[in-house]
Design a protein that fits this description.
Elements lengths: L18 E2 L6 E9 L4 E8 L3 E2 L2 E4 L2 E13 L2 E4 L3 E4 L4 E2 L2 E2 L3 E8 L4 E6 L5 E5 H7 L4 H16 L1
Antiparallel strand pairs: 1-2, 2-3, 3-11, 4-10, 5-9, 5-12, 6-7, 6-8, 6-11, 12-13
């Protein structure tokens, strides 16, 4: 008889808010699972129509399934039903003219997942801490955190 708890679960994503990704207007995320032990992240992602994301590099393996709409990068078109596999160290600039919704699975050997290259030359990492902070967060949580950071910065 096993004494370990069965980790199987059903998560209703409708119960979670779409959170706008900071510094990426028109890009929204719902982190479903951020598993520190297995170094895996599962999230839903949404492009508003006309969204272009910053160029980014993968520090992990990624699988992205297009649920609806269409998105593209580097000449690859990914309509509803398409699956993209993006290996470690791959680099691209995703965009969507009509808008799209995806489910994304990330698997890393470390706590590092993505590095975004911003237009001002800065680099913004998306590591396990980033995804854990967003796991199950509400828009109100994000607004509170932003206000706290702004207040701390002003003090």
């Amino acid at each position: 008889m096993s004494t370990t708890e069965d980790p199987t679960r059903v998560i209703e994503s409708a119960d979670q808010d779409w959170l706008e990704i900071p510094l990426s207007p028109g890009a929204y995320i719902k982190v479903i699972v951020a598993d520190e032990e297995r170094k895996q992240v599962v999230f839903q992602f949404r492009f508003d129509p006309g969204t272009v994301l910053p160029r980014h590099r993968h520090k992990c393996h990624a699988i992205a399934y297009t649920v609806s709409g269409e998105w593209e990068y580097e000449g690859l078109r990914l309509p509803a039903g398409a699956l993209a596999y993006e290996p470690v160290e791959s680099e691209h600039t995703p965009s969507s003219e009509p808008g799209a919704e995806l489910v994304v699975f990330l698997k890393s050997e470390t706590d590092d997942f993505l590095v975004n290259y911003m237009p001002d030359g800065s680099e913004i990492p998306m590591d396990m801490g980033f995804f854990k902070a967003l796991e199950g967060a509400s828009q109100a949580d994000i607004e509170r955190l932003s206000a706290e950071l702004t207040d701390d910065g002003a003090a």
